[in-house]
Amino acid sequence: MAITCKINLTNELDHVFVPGETVYGVVQYKLSEDITFKKISISLKGKDLLSIDGTYQTVDCSDASNKNYVEVTNIVHEDERGSTFASGEYEMSFSMTLPYNIPKSFNYKKNKDGYYINYKLFYYVRVKFERPGILNKSQSFKKWINVTSSIVPTLPRVSVTYEEKKRLIKLFSRRENAITLKATVDNSIVEPGGRVKLQCDVKNDSAFNIKEIEIKLVEDFRIKSANINENVCDVLHTIRLNPSLSIRGDTDLMKVVLDVPRDAHTVNNSRLVDRNYFVYITAVLPAFYRNAVLKVPIEVGENNLDNIVVRDAPPSYWDAMNLNRPEVTK
């Protein structure tokens, strides 16, 4: 098909869209010869794809319903019998609004135990030209857009304390042996590139020495497709401390700051995956004893996406230049 097409967004270069924002643009296409079309449409779409490549096979874990996060279509031209467009240059403007409560654009690639996990969540503007007749294939052109979104917090924004008490067994001893871990978080909601601030309180009420306190910020990427149940944990930041907790009743109070990567972001509104963050505080015990572990949930995401400037759609090229549009022959 002798069509060349370019999709131009009127938003500034490298613009990042947010839920509820309107995507404006102009489609410019050129026909090198007269062509008959039965339908021309402009769509705004958003979807995700998940696949796991193994040694012998590839498992497609995408949603079987094939439902999109965004499915907005403007029909520019429609005629089942077809209308002939003369050769020349054409232009059509579009305006489509992103829905609320959609996940951000996301690309995740990871190797785990010989498997390659590939997940993409993406948005794009598509122009589709359809011709009448079974033998005439449709032709599509796409323009990718980047979408970010703020998280819907499920954790408190105020200071909160978590506690875990681990009881230990010591032969020929009637006294209770326990290690208590406490962690107070200033704010459980952290922006990408920000910091997690903790105050850790470790109490050794046992006959065992605590060899080390290990504090880790962990990303938990979990696949929730019906086809497979798998998760990948990545340690983003680790702090190791050597407390002096060798005597029963010893207590150590520590203030800890953990750096959050700029590309970190909690994902909790995808149909196929979840991405969450936790702080693990571990009291390392002598051999043959399981360590005491406290798990503290953290949510990472933007909180300042409300101040969006909504602009009116710009005039079309033909209106701005005071030119007549090319005629369509039916």
From TrEMBL:
Residue intervals of the Arrestin C-terminal-like domain: 175-305
An annotated GO cellular component: cytoplasm
The keyword Transit peptide is assigned to this record: no
Annotated GO biological process: protein transport
Highest taxon listed in the record's lineage: Eukaryota
Swiss-Prot/TrEMBL keywords: Sensory transduction
Homology family: Belongs to the arrestin family.
UniProt name for this protein: Arrestin C-terminal-like domain-containing protein
UniProt source species: Diatraea saccharalis (sugarcane borer)
